[in-house]
Amino acid sequence: MRRLPDMDAAQFQQWQKLLEHRTGITLSEERRSFLETNLSIRMREIGFSSYQDYYEHIVSGPEAIREWSVLVDRLTVQETRFFRDPDAFRLVADYVLTRPRERFRKGPLEAWSVGCSTGEEPYTLAITLNECMSQLGLQPLFGVTGSDISQPALIKAQKGRFSARSLQGMDEDLRARYFRPAERNTVDIVDSLRERVCFARLNVLNLDRVPMQGVNIIFCQNLLIYFRRWRRREIVRKLAGYLAPGGLLVLGQGELTDWQHPSLQRVPSEHVLAWTKRQSNDE
User: Fold this and answer.
1) What angle separates helix 32-46 from helix 64-76, to the nearest 10 degrees?
2) Residue 135 — φ and ψ, nearest 5°?
């Protein structure tokens, strides 16, 4: 198939507006080649040779909904790995290990990974929580929810099968406890851990529709960088509303600056951007 013509400025702006309108994600001029490459690959796969024709197919074609789901997956899912930010997970562990003992008599801990991609982050949260419960001599009473806009990514996450490469740098004892060898240089999460993690499709523009409350840990890293500053603040403000009193909110370093919330208190840390929700009495 012959090479597609370069995307002109008007076409790029058209796709920029569509992506931001539907997902909130903004693409700068520097990411134009990223958009063009991913669009052209998909267009070749299904037989389109014009950016405009493909745009109209996405917006109003008979397979528009299904095709949009495929394209969003191509544009948003990034390669990740377990314990991608070790400092952040150490902070989560310290948070859990220093909770008053009576907190664990109130019910299971609930954690939420926002923008979970293919599942490495929520499963890392589950490993961290399980290790903490074991260290405290408690039953593993916790649940983790992973949410993402990409349905294909969520399907992969639910299966709990990962490339061995995604475990790079992980402690060998943790590998042995939580993973089993599978086919073709892949590994499976052990069932006892996989059963504690559930997944749901969510566009963060629709946070008002989330049927959750009283979440103890909200983990949202490497997502906000794709949004405008005002929208980042709006997203985090809404996430704060889902935290339980005393709950922990963890973001990516540099994703939000000069921001305050009357209900949140900044966690003193040089390497992790995090807050806890204020409470009148200790949990």
Assistant:
1) 140
2) -65, -30
Q: What is the pLDDT of residues 235-276, one digit of tens each?
A: 999 999 999 999 999 999 888 877 889 999 999 998 999 999
Joined together, the tokens standing for residue 94 give 């310290």
User: What topology is assigned to 9-76 in CATH?
Assistant: Chemotaxis Receptor Methyltransferase Cher; domain 1 (1.10.155)
Name the residue ranges covered by the structural domains of the chain.
9-76, 86-277
Altogether, the residues listed in the chain come to a count of 283
- In the block, residue with structure tokens 């929810």: 145
pLDDT, one tens digit per residue, over 47-90 is 998 999 999 999 998 889 999 988 988 888 677 899 999 999 99
CB 262 within 8 A of CB 230: no
> What's the rounded Cα separation, in Å, for the pair 22 and 72?
10
* DSSP E strand boundaries for 174-269: 179-181, 186-189, 197-201, 215-220, 243-251, 264-266
CA nearest neighbour of 231 among 266, 204, 261? 204
CATH number for the domain formed by residue range(s) 86-277: 3.40.50.150
